Amino acid sequence: MNERPKVLVVYYTQTGQLKRIIDHVLAPLANSVDITYEELVPVQPFPFPWGKQQFYDTMPETVQDTPRGIRPLEVDLNAHFDLVLLAYQPWFLSPSQPTAAFLQSEAAARLLKGKQVITLLGSRNMWLNAQERVKGYLHRMGANLVGNIVLVDKSPNLVSLITILRWAFKGKKEATRFLPQAGVQENEIITSNRFAGPIATALETRKWQDLHPQLMSLDAVELLPNLVLLENNGISAFRFWAKFISAKGGPGAEARQGRVTMYRSLLLVGIFVLTPITLISSFIKLNLKRNELKREVDYYKGVTLR
User: Fold this and answer.
1) Average model confidence (pLDDT) for the chain?
2) How many Cβ atoms from other residues are within 10 Å of residue 183's Cβ?
3) Within 10 A of 296 (CB to CB), how many other CB atoms are there?
4) What range does the domain containing 271 cover?
5) pLDDT tens, 53-97?
């Protein structure tokens, strides 16, 4: 009798939404695949709902790749896995701190070297820079990224910003009279089980090069061109503010709170101003440099690292 394929799921979630996405993606495989779950647990937990100042104070270390530590993994680092599913959320256009801490660890290097990896993201809508960073980590440790699945909030950018901040700061996810429910739409989560078919085929045939194209045929990654431009502007601003704030001390340092407050005040104004400007500039660029922007979109939707 053939041994069942073994899949390891490594994930971190604050709200439980990402775990629900994982469960729906993998549900059709439950009777044919052995699945091991490894939840990343910060040594010093992050709060949810967040306090506003603490939320924004978390940005510098997230952007600068200096995350707080996580507890030792429970999984056997020498165990065999045919596939690893790495599920994470972007924070401040970067991998969440627990995800970054994992990817920087010796345990991850041992666990992921030579492994086939699928990344699974649950995101508001901006994930490109975070995924580029994850691609880099995986490449350096000798892992093979064979697929990417991205579930996002499909509400308009400014609407999703309002609902996600309401959820983050007040813990209120439900819809209101004027606002939709926060997070990835329920139908997107429920129908994510469609990705199990290509994953099952890849586990059976070992034709890993075919996996991402098959996932893409099921709309595993959708990307609006204006988000490429919006992220490029956003990550540059985040890097400036991360350096500016951290120059006054580490997380929670009293000396840097004035700069955190300044950043916090300017960020939302910047987003509300930049979003319509970027929509206009992306429309212009789409018409003037259509092929260039199309190449950018195609690259970010793929699994290669340039």
Assistant:
1) 94
2) 24
3) 18
4) 226-299
5) 999 999 999 999 999 999 999 999 999 999 999 999 999 999 999
Q: How far apart are the first and last CA of the chain?
A: 42
Handedness of CA 189, 130, 197, 295 (dihedral sign): positive
Alpha-carbon separation of residue 266 from 274, 277, 302 (angstroms) = 12, 16, 33
For the record, the structure tokens of 134 come out as: 């994850």
Contact indicator for 220, 149 with CB cutoff of 8 Å: yes
**Residue carrying the six token digits 């992921």:** 112
Question: 273: exposed, middle or buried (C-beta count within 10 Å: 0-12, 13-18, 19+)?
Answer: exposed
Q: Are residues 109 and 172 in the same domain?
A: yes
| Chain segment 185-239, per-residue pLDDT in tens | 999 999 999 999 999 999 999 999 999 999 999 999 999 887 888 888 889 989 9
Order of strands across the sheet with 144-152?
34-39, 6-11, 83-88, 116-123, 144-152
Residue 134 has pLDDT above 70, yes or no: yes
Is 305 within a domain?
A: no
The answer to whether residue 304 is domain-embedded is no
Look at residues 204, 223, 242 and tell me which one is the last residue of a structural domain.
Answer: 223
| Residues 61, 304: Cα–Cα separation, whole Å | 26
Q: pLDDT tens digit string along 101-124?
A: 999 999 999 999 999 999 999 999
Mean pLDDT of all residues in 245-256: 97
Q: Is the pLDDT of residue 162 over 60?
A: yes
Does residue 218 sit in the same domain as residue 277?
no
Nearest to 182 by CA among 165, 207, 205: 165
As given in the structure block, the two tokens for residue 138 are 């995986």
As for how many domains the chain has, the answer is: 2
Instruction: Say whether both 55 and 195 belong to one domain.
Output: yes
Could you check whether the bond before residue 49 is cis, i.e. omega within 30 degrees of 0? yes
pTM over 0.85, yes/no: yes
The dihedrals phi and psi of 168, each to the nearest 5 degrees, come to -65, -40
